[in-house]
Amino acid sequence: MVVSHVIRALRWNLLIGTLNYKTKTITTFYAVMIGYFVNLAVPRLGEVSRCGVLAKHDKVPVNSIFGTVIAERVFDVFTLFVIILITIFSQLDFLSDFIQKNVLTPAEQKFSGNSILIISCAILFFILALVALYLYRIFKRKVVEHTLAYKIKNIIEGFFAGIKTIKHVENKKLFLLYSFLLWFVYYLTIYFAFFAMQATSGLEPVDALTVLAIGSIGILIPTPGGIGAYQYIVGLTLTGVFAVAKIPASSFANILYFSQWFMIIIIGGTSWFLLILSEKRNLKNETK
Q1: Would 267 be classed as within a structural domain?
Q2: Residue 10 lies in a domain
Q3: How many domains does the chain have?
Q4: Which end of the chain has fewer CB atoms < 10 Å from its terminal CB, N or C?
């Protein structure tokens, strides 16, 4: 899994380079690992943390760099969506009952029970957006002239500039290659983990793709590091789709998750320590 984090750091560097900022690959890697480390405690705070780390050590504006993280995550969600579609259509007969029972039916029940609330919230959001746009057009000149508003405007522009990096990245082929390798490493991690237990050793390579596609949904759920949700979904996939017994399925999910968890704690903590040492070394050099 360390390989996947190195690839993520390299890909992130490509996006940052689009903003004409130079960052050290090793610092970017440290920032990525610290971000994962923080995510274990507070969901999604790691994305902010890695931006703060890189902004502090390589002097890159936080708003712009956070935009690149959003762009990266949006692209990953799109990639995951494609993987899920490929998995479903390649194993439609095999997965249809599982998806109907565990995804479509629960979603339909939740939506039917909260449909009025959801629709009301959507209408309210739409009305507020229209009011905000109307007020902005009326007071546009006064708002822009205000110092605080001007700073906020610059922050927002920098943020959207970061998001647009995915469109303007110079080496698109290299970016796509890194993205492919990233998910391929995730896939290999699951496939080779099959051989760690007798109950899963007979699963096929295509089955690892199914576990990757469905299990990755658990990472998107905002729990600390995906804990709980990831194991539940992976275990449910193994029992519901591949008829693996409940206990070994749960054991496999925990092995898969906690092997990554311990690696993040060790390497993330070490990265934090090394960055502190690097900062102290730089301060000493500046005072000489």
Answers
A1: yes
A2: yes
A3: 1
A4: C
Amino acid occupying residue 118 = I
> Residue 266 is part of which domain span?
2-281
pTM of the model: 0.77
Domain membership of residue 120 (yes or no) is yes
